[in-house]
Write a structure and sequence with these properties.
alpha/beta; TIM Barrel; 2 domains; 5-stranded mixed sheet; 18 strands; 34% helix
């Protein structure tokens, strides 16, 4: 395809989280910080990667000079100039007067796409009864057990139930609208529907890891929704991997991920086969599963796998604890398990909205970071009620502020005799939660050099955030005629604010970011790019 | 004023929380339940009160028949008929095809209006340092200490700083837009600005309790922001009461509320005088203050008031613990304090978003309800980051699901030997959180017979909620042409959903309510009425 322009030039304010010192060797208690730069940044339309920036271009004059000097012309013709022989560029502007800025796209390291119709439905259930009551029934509707088959059988997306296609389409729409440029999806056991999710992500332009869910253990899977055997589970998984590798041979946008649901639903032969399968590729395939979400679940795994010293050890024994493994939740890891996870360089997806909603507990994220474990954020739809990573960031902050009140946290830090040192330090700041949402998530999916920030060479996965302008205006609220007929306050609705973020003009730029995290929503996401392609914009 | 019509007729689905058995005599562990009725309900335009309903009117034919039988005609002329001699009525419809329903207006039992510009700004602070760093500076900008004066001095709203007027106007706009029909406001120490808040609520039509903040204790108030003496504090409070009683002589919409900030900022003479002041009216004035939000604060009060057996006892000794007292937070009450609060029939405003954000802890709300204490919800802007009571309801559910993990809760229930009985019962359901947001809040402000539900004789304080229609449509998401240019998915943006609530058509009506609570926001509030007057509608 011939491109209309060579570069996209993004102009305005860029905000991101600073990189932390590498923590492979030494535990790093370093705190991430928000960084702001203003100027221009350009991206290759061909590769979607950042080719350069200039943080000295602060006004129209400097910008025009820069364009001329480089022989660049605006493909949309806003800048006059002879197009012949010139390099055409697409200009995207973040407007200062509307408090707009570019921010790295969010990375959702754990989301169950088929559960989206259940978002917000969980009653007062906890993990194990929630699976039975809410989750397995909705997932089973994405196909029949006959659609879990070997390569010769059904695997075309078109063979998935139409409703499944609509739900997956809506999930991708919603997550893009919330600024999620990359997601690691659990699908269902069904090959056609799982392949359909991959196809939809590819078409819509969302970076995605797509996992066909493996669950073959009859004792802990419902009769109506399970892989028929370990062999079937492996075979169907290979089918999906094959489909995705055909769909996107270079894995530019969509990649497969090996997905044993969690230890209780998988037989030992299945776990072993899946570990071998992941390792058989070069580089090895990504793996995702759940761990230590809920205390009853931890006790169950202890009973089911007496040969393993811990929940983490179960996965380790089957070669599923790798540097490319995403462990969702990790609320209740023992000290030994933390050491093992760190030693294997496995990654953790922190899902605070889900963990609060299902009453699972609070993962000690700051401890994990201090111990050198890589952590990102997950929405865990529909254990989590929201497809928004901004909501996950907010809940990460909130639950971390309650962590010091929990018995487990107090006990853990009393035992090692450093309670006083830890009090207060467990609280995640807005900057830390946004770090988890971007840089952290990128590291969880092993793409820390590609996404999550704005360095040269990185892929342009980004969102344009609009907070709105300052809304103070001249009409006195005491002049009754302005409002006495009720209805929307014109100053509120018709002037600056976007969504619920109110800027009064007294805030520092860091405080505006805090207001975004605490009061923002999808209304503030004006546009979203993945690999430099605009994949969502707000109407 | 001559009214254009005699009744408003609300037509469609009505959802509310059932009343609980009176709990004055026996502790009631009763669980509130959602109730749904469909038909029509009519409200006197004169009084704003509900005059009748008919739950058998389910279609146009029945409705037309009902109108004819009563000699009613549509003032907007949508129904044909001879207007001469007929009773004119205004018809308001909740549309089933858009999942619309009427719901009681929300009651915010604790909100600091002047702190709104700080919503979302608190860093990692906790109560006492947050007051110093964020709160006192912003509040002090609502006037000068010379605007705290006796009756002969400044008290006109127009003398308040213009910025204060705009902030108060925005707070009222925002809370109305979120469905808050009644709010109990803390203002600042300044008489003109406090009076301005009362005037704005009166003009905009929001039911409100307006409290001039009393804080005269030099040791715990900043030099730049405090009442100059107990006498000044009392005198200024009387000024505001007088202004509000003149503004709204019958207290139809706006009432004063005596507001000692909290024990540490008030001298003993001030506390005594304010208790006497409230009691000197018939009926006694309402009172609001803070209690036991944070453990350091509890320890501070213990030090400052050695003569009192507890924090609650401090207020009790000064006659501030009355059936018309709202105690904000109550996170860390002792068993003896709970008994005292119950004995005095004082009310509790639960502010979960604030308590999580400031790391204060989790109030054991279900325990309080079981013990017969009246509880409502508060946003506590800006300790709370959101002016939305729906967000408060959500946070009430979330934090209650973490309560069982806290050391204090476990210890409390271990001591009385009933740990096993309590586990899980502390979780608030969606119905319970909505009960707190409506019926509970109404009881907290002693208006349980007037607002919070749809019984005959009650005042029509209500909101029209719109969730949107089912969005499944016929175009297959796999047809790439529909979406390959990126941008908003047309099915998402242009069809049914309103805000973030996605209805797939498989939900029961109770599940739709759950989706509203977990995913809804101000976009779902289509219109708001206070006393039958429409005071907000969404554009």
């Amino acid at each position: 395809m011939r491109r209309e322009y060579e570069f996209s030039v993004y102009r305005g304010t860029f905000i991101q989280l600073g990189r932390l010192p590498q923590s492979d060797l030494v535990p790093s208690p370093a705190k991430p910080e928000l960084q702001r730069t203003q100027g221009i940044l350009w991206v290759s339309a061909e590769s979607g990667r950042i080719k350069g920036y200039d943080w000295k271009i602060h006004d129209d004059e400097a910008f025009t000079g820069f364009m001329s000097k480089n022989g660049w012309v605006d493909v949309d013709g806003k800048t006059n100039g002879n197009l012949g022989g010139a390099t055409k560029v697409k200009i995207v502007e973040a407007r200062e007067d509307k408090n707009e800025f570019f921010f790295p796209g969010f990375i959702d390291t754990h989301i169950h796409a088929p559960q989206y119709p259940n978002a917000g439905l969980f009653g007062s259930s906890t993990l194990l009864d929630w699976l039975e009551t809410y989750t397995f029934p909705v997932e089973s509707g994405f196909g029949t057990q006959s659609t879990v088959k070997g390569q010769s059988q059904a695997q075309k997306p078109e063979e998935a139930p139409e409703k499944a296609l609509h739900i997956y389409d809506q999930v991708v729409s919603r997550t893009l609208a919330h600024g999620t440029t990359c997601a690691s999806y659990f699908a269902t056991i069904h090959v056609p529907a799982t392949n359909a999710l991959a196809a939809i992500c590819q078409t819509r332009g969302q970076r995605a890891f797509i996992g066909r869910v493996c669950m073959d253990e009859p004792a802990f899977c419902p009769e109506y929704y399970k892989d028929l055997s370990a062999e079937d589970s492996l075979s169907a998984t290979k089918d999906t991997i094959h489909y995705i590798h055909t769909l996107d041979p270079k894995g530019t946008l969509v990649k497969p991920i090996v997905t044993p649901r969690f230890a209780p639903t998988c037989s030992r032969p299945s776990l072993t086969a899946l570990g071998q399968l992941a390792a058989s590729y070069n580089p090895p395939l990504h793996i995702q599963t759940h761990i230590a979400e809920n205390k009853n679940e931890v006790a169950l795994v202890k009973d089911l796998f007496p040969e393993a010293e811990s929940y983490a050890a179960v996965y380790d024994q089957h070669n599923l604890l790798t540097p490319r493994t995403i462990l969702a939740h990790a609320v209740h890891l023992s000290k030994e398990e933390r050491t093992l996870v760190k030693a294997r360089d496995a990654k953790i997806s922190h899902c605070p909205a889900s963990n609060s909603a299902l009453g699972s507990g609070i993962a000690p994220v700051r401890d994990y970071l201090n111990e050198g474990i890589t952590v990102g954020l997950g929405t865990d739809v529909s254990g989590g009620y929201s497809p928004s990573i901004l909501e996950a960031a907010r809940q990460a902050c909130l639950s971390s502020r309650l962590l010091g009140h929990t018995k487990d946290f107090v006990d853990y830090h009393s035992h090692d005799g450093c309670e006083s040192k830890s009090v207060g330090l467990e609280k995640l700041s807005v900057a830390e939660s946004l770090y988890l949402a971007t840089r952290g998530g990128a590291a969880v999916v092993n793409m820390e050099d590609d996404i999550g920030g704005f360095e040269i060479g990185m892929i342009m996965d980004a969102q344009l955030i609009q907070l709105g302008s300052v809304r103070m205006n001249g009409v006195s609220p005491l002049s009754a005629t302005a409002n006495m007929n009720g209805g929307p306050c014109t100053s509120l609705i018709q002037s600056g604010p976007v969504g619920n973020v109110d800027i009064f003009g007294t805030e520092s730029w860091e405080e505006k970011i805090q207001k975004w995290v605490w009061s923002g929503d999808d209304r503030n996401v004006k546009a979203v790019w993945v690999g430099g392609r605009m994949v969502h914009w707000r109407v």
